[in-house]
Design goal:
alpha+beta, Thiol Ester Dehydrase, Chain A
Length: 260
C-alpha cells in the first residue's frame, strides 16, 4: 500500500483509563514543582491538558505497526486543541484516524488525528522513503514574522526527566539507552519532544499570566533535540507565538499557545 492510500483511514477507537496518580506523575515528569499543589496534590488536582497526549499515543503506534512507516520516521510536530478539562481520573473514549498524507518526494508526511470529548490532537510524522506516490506536497512552512522583542523565561530540564517521562507511555529506547541514542547520532539519550513541548507550557503560562491547566491550544514543530540537564530558554510574544531554544539552536519552532 502506498503512503497516500492511508489518508482518511480509521485507526479505531479505544477507551483509555487513568488515575489521579497517573496525572500527577505526568505533571512531575514535565517539570511541575512540588509547591504547585493543584498540579501534584490529589486534594487540589487540576489535570494538565497535555496529559491527554500520553493517553492517545497508541494512535501513531497503530499506524507504525501496520507498516505505514519504519524506524527512520520522526515525530515532526504536534498540535492539540482543548475542548474541556480532563477529569481527575476516569476513562476517555478516543477515536483515531489518518488525516492528510503529503508527498514530499523522498518522504511522506502523515497526519494522525485523535478526537475525544475533551480534546483533538494531531501528530505529524515525517517518514523518509515513503514519498513519490503522486500526492500533493501540502502547505509550505509559514513565513517568518517580525514580532519584536520577546518575553523570556528559563526552562531547566532535569537530569532524570526523560527517564521519568517515559513512565507515562513513551518507552522508545533513544530516551533511556545510550546505545540506542548513539545509533541516531546523539551522545546520550534525548528528551521526548512531547515532554519539551509540554514543559514549555509551564513558564509560558507564567509569562502570559495564566494557569497551565487552562491551556486551550498548543502547537509546535520539533526542530532540534534536547538533552536531559539542558538549560533552555523560552521566548514568547503577545500573540501566543513562542520558541524554545537550546543555546542558539531553536529546539521547538513555529509554535503557538493559548490559555483560557
Amino acid at each position: 500500500m502506498s503512503a497516500g492510500e492511508w489518508a482518511g483511514r480509521s485507526l479505531g477507537e479505544r477507551r483509555v483509563g487513568y488515575t489521579e496518580r497517573d496525572a500527577i506523575l505526568y505533571a512531575l515528569s514535565v517539570g511541575a514543582r512540588a509547591d504547585q499543589l493543584d498540579l501534584v496534590f490529589e486534594d487540589r488536582l487540576r489535570v494538565l491538558p497535555t496529559f491527554g497526549l500520553t493517553l492517545a499515543q497508541w494512535a501513531p503506534d497503530v499506524l507504525a505497526a501496520a507498516g505505514a512507516f519504519d524506524t527512520r520516521s520522526v515525530h515532526a510536530s504536534q498540535r492539540i486543541e482543548v475542548h474541556g478539562p480532563l477529569p481527575r481520573s476516569g476513562e476517555l473514549l478516543l477515536a483515531a484516524r489518518v488525516g492528510a498524507v503529503w508527498d514530499k518526494g523522498s518522504a511522506a508526511i502523515f497526519e494522525i488525528e485523535v478526537r475525544s470529548e475533551q480534546f483533538t490532537a494531531v501528530w505529524t510524522i515525517f517518514a523518509p522513503g515513503q514519498g513519490g506516490f503522486g500526492g500533493e506536497r501540502g502547505p509550505a512552512r509559514p513565513a517568518a514574522v517580525e514580532r519584536g522583542e520577546p518575553r523570556r523565561a528559563a526552562l531547566r530540564i532535569a537530569e532524570n526527566q526523560a527517564a521519568l517521562y517515559r513512565l507515562t507511555g513513551d518507552r522508545h529506547r533513544i530516551h533511556i539507552d545510550p546505545e540506542a541514542s548513539a545509533l541516531i547520532g546523539q551522545p546520550r539519550p534525548i528528551l521526548q519532544g512531547l515532554c519539551t513541548l509540554a514543559a514549555a507550557t509551564l513558564p509560558l503560562a507564567d509569562l502570559l499570566g495564566a494557569h497551565p491547566a487552562e491551556l486551550s491550544r498548543l502547537e509546535g514543530r520539533f526542530s532540534a533535540p534536547v538533552l536531559p540537564g539542558d538549560e533552555l530558554e523560552v521566548r514568547s510574544w503577545a500573540d501566543g507565538a513562542f520558541q524554545v531554544l537550546r543555546g542558539e539552536t531553536v529546539a521547538i519552532a513555529d509554535a503557538s499557545v493559548a490559555f483560557g
